[in-house]
Amino acid sequence: MARAYGGMTAAERRAERRERLMDAGLEAFTAEGYAASSIEKLCAAAGVSTRNFYEEFSGREALLMALHDRIIERALVAAADALAEAHDAPLLVRVEKAIRAHMTVTAEDPRWARLSYVELVGVSAAVEQHRLAWRERWVDFLVAEAENAAGRGERPARDFRLSAVAIIGAVNELIYHWSLNGRQRPFEEVIAEAVRFISALALAD
Most exposed of 170, 184, 187, 188 (fewest Cβ within 10 Å)? Predict the structure, then answer.
């Protein structure tokens, strides 16, 4: 039986330390920049030892990728839920709801957008591989929905993979631009621009 200290088991204390490190990483990577955020600074902000850090993460890159996983997984689930709720709606309605859900979750906390679309880029070969793996998951997600639309007779059947890559590139660049330029425009304008682009692509033969 696990012993409890201060009302928390060892597993609960470890989970709580991990969350403090995740919080510290999100704040430091987006305020100071990934390159300027040392493990020592992260541990000081989280109130944990470097030993505790290495119990959870193999290094800063692992923490960065764990944060990115959390953010993008939430966005993917939100988009999938939006499509499921609108499964009987016309194609363009489903497109708007899915894109809006994904982008809203991504920028719900501006630090999430900064980490995923600015700080994650160009860190290392390993992080780039991680980012591209997520892009492939998004491509598969979009292709599946496009094929679903073709099966319903809403669009002619074709190879939708390049269109999916174009959509991902457009959304990524719009969020990157918004985040890098100090979020000067309301995010609703960014979403609307993405919806316009993707709707036009969705209607193309």
Answer: 184
